[in-house]
Amino acid sequence: MAVDTLERAWAAAARVVDPELPMLTLIDLGVLRDIAVDDDGAVVAAITPTYSGCPAMAAMRDDLLREFQDAGLEDARVRVALEPAWTTDWITPEGRAALATAGISPPGAAPRRGGPVAISLLPTRRAVHCPQCGSADVELSSEFGSTACKAMYRCRACLEPFDHVKEI
Amino acid sequence: MAEVHTHAEGEHDNAYAGLLVNDAHWAFGTDFEDPLAGVDTTVPDGVDPAELAAYCLMLGDDALVFSQRLSEWCSNAPDLEEDIALANIALDLLGQARLLLARAAAADPSIVPVLPDGSPVPDEDRLAYFRDDQHFRNVRLAEVPTGDFAEIIARVLLFSTWRLALFERLSRSRDAVLAAVAAKGVKELSYHRDYVGRWFLVLAQGTDESRSRLLAAVNGLWPFTGELFSTHAVERSLAEAGAGVDPAEVRDEVLGVLVHVFEASEVTPPPSGTLAGVQGRLGRDGVHTEALSRMLAEMQVVARAHPEGRW
To answer: What pTM was estimated for this model as a whole?
Structure first.
């Protein structure tokens, strides 16, 4: 019974997309951390914010609860998982492909941390390719973009601007 | 042919549809969503709940007040990219503030301002909008009135370098909530500090005008830095309990990073000199400059006029 509920819950959750990156499901984005069935048979989904100020958390919760309801899982709730902190390394291969198809450059490997963080006074070096034409001749225009998780680049070859999901 | 991804409901395509999802919520805040929903907020053994709450208010108020100052740049920055960058930094800090104020309220509910029965205002918004200036525990660097672009670059450099050093240590706090908030904050603050560090270099090596404005900003802000490393009794107590960080501990590391940026920019650090408190009381004690009162008046006026406002 619980196994069946869990399968239906995952299937329902797989339909929920990120409000700001709608080409990605919450699973692709790595934001949906866990789904469990508690002792009373209620579905409990755990989501984690991409950035502390992520304004999409309420929308994600509402979308998850609606999909659970549509799947006949009336008794469901969403909890916040703060730890471990979200990293772009959790974006799935399918998610990375979907980003590239949508014209958004997927992130490279997240920086490894431990101990004091060194300051970098030179532009962040990344192996970024233009998602439009594939050229590696690109330049950073800003480390901050239309959402907290993106940096802005432009391609010197095809001259198109594009977003890059920055590594955290 | 490529498959086109569409939503049958089109919920995110229509700005009005989303308004009907939740029946009603407080008109000026963060919705009913609890930022700590399902998070274990049990206070660890050996940590005083009231002191933990006071400590979370300190770190939360630093972020809240500085976020409000950064937000004043929205639509006022020199160009679109910088406008968006400053707004992003403000949003990250607001997110940190929200979690920290919520954590403070969960540790000691008695600190949350009381509103009329049935008020829909969540705890972290009550703390943000319904406390007076003397109850804010932020360092005074955060509240300095907004100056020019050089001023905000210099101030974010001082603030983010200091906060990053604190949070890197705080990520090992015995309080799991504080540790998680700090670990996440480290990633954000690293971006903030890199961004302003590069601008600091550009302004210092740019024109005579940009350099003179940057030097004026550094000289004007420097007296606020002494307070960053001054240990409040609550900070000492939390540090001893393994849940907080004594800010005096991060002084050498912070100054080391700043000197590195200053040297690369050929800027001489100003002689030390600290803005005095009132009978030894500083921002952490609730003693602030007049600027905070004015800022809060603007930030809080609409919320206070409609403590039960819904839409």
So the answer is: 0.92
